[in-house]
Amino acid sequence: VGVDGGEGTPVPIPNTEVKLTCADNTWLATAREDKKMPTQNKTPSDFSEGVFAFVLFSYIRVNRNVAVFPDADGDHQRQTCQRKRQEISEKATLAGGFFLWYNTVEVIKMRKNFGVKTWLYPMPVLIVAAYDKDGVPNCMNAAWGGIYDTNQVMVCLDDGHKTTQNIRESGAFTVHIADAKHLVEADYVGIVSGNNVPDKMKKAGLTATRSGFVNAPVIEQFPMAVECKLLKFNEDGICVGEIVNVSVDETALTADGKIDVAKLDPITYDSANHQYRRLGETVGNAFEDGKKLK
User: Fold this and answer.
1) How confident is the model at residue 18 (pLDDT cuts 50, 70, 90)?
2) What local confidence, expressed as pLDDT, does residue 83 receive?
3) Degrees, nearest 5: CA angle 188-189-192
4) pLDDT confidence of 21, banded at 50, 70, 90?
5) Is it the case that residue 19 has pLDDT exceeding 90?
6) Whole-model pTM above 0.70?
7) Interatomic CA distance for residues 143 and 68, integer angstroms
8) What does R_g of the chain's alpha carbons equal in angstroms?
């Protein structure tokens, strides 16, 4: 500081040493020097980088600017500056610890562990149907199923289901793809047992015709059916069937006779939230888009 506390050139006093007890006001000189040098505006890419840059700058600046020039009262001034340096160093260490904690939490919070859950996406909604020994059809809702092998399907069925008994007796079954239009009916046949409600298909408003390929019912309301001959039941309750035919209602076909998924409008089962969801839009082409990385 200059005369009378104003900013200006220090006035030299003969036969004395210049003494700087602390660096409290050196930011004025630093600021003047900074104005003379070209700078670039740098914005931290995220919060953590900003914290780290601030901590590093503060620590270096404090250790650079805190200086002591000895004189008669030098011990007291040295202790004062050392305390200030220690306080700021502790704050910098604390802020640095926060920086590390923040980045660690940021990584951990990206995933949440749910433990052992029977979850998979997308999970199908399959309506499995079969005749009993008297030719009466029954059906049930099953989510645990899919392709078992080439030209084979599998469905996980408990022996207590009426439909399971029918499959064992008739040696055939059909697997239908549930659609959004018949969501209520599909859910109903999954929560009501044919052992307790023998005419549950009738109550659901579902009608069936006999398949022309296997001894199993094709439910008219569902637009797609996979008609199967029973191959085996595994020890763990897996029903495996050979695909004999796949039939699709013409309303779910494209102009050139292929399956139109949008018209089929299949639903999937969200096992984590116990909800049914539609399949979404087309996002790519199988066996084709991956070639971009070759």
Assistant:
1) very low
2) 74
3) 80
4) very low
5) no
6) no
7) 77
8) 38
Distances (CA, A) of 165 to 32, 132, 160, 195, 231: 90, 8, 8, 10, 15
Q: Which residues contact 215 (CB under 8 A, 6 or more apart)?
A: 131, 170, 171, 172
Instruction: Give the residue among 166, 114, 191, 176 at the shortest CA–CA distance from 145.
Output: 176
Provide the phi-psi class of 30: left if phi over 0, else alpha when psi is between -120 and 50, else beta.
alpha
3-state secondary structure of 149: strand
**Residues 221-244 pLDDT 10s:** 999 999 999 999 998 889 999 999
Q: Which residues of 48-71 are buried (b: 16+ CB within 10 A; e: fewer)?
A: eeebbeebeeebeebeebbebeee
**Confidence (pLDDT) at 237:** 86
Which contiguous run of DSSP H or E holds residue 35? helix 26-36
Assess whether pLDDT exceeds 90 at residue 170.
yes
DSSP code per residue over 197-262 = -TTHHHHTT--EEE-SSSSSEEETTSSEEEEEEEEEE-TTSEEEEEEEEEEE-GGGB-TTS-B-HH
Residue located via tokens 């004999």? 244
Q: What's at 112, amino acid-wise?
A: K
Q: Is 69 strand, coil or helix?
A: coil
Structure letter (DSSP) for residue 125: -
Q: Please name which of 36, 35, 31 lies closest in space to residue 61, comparing C-alpha atoms.
A: 31
Q: Which of 167, 130, 123, 112 is nearest to 145 (CA)?
A: 123
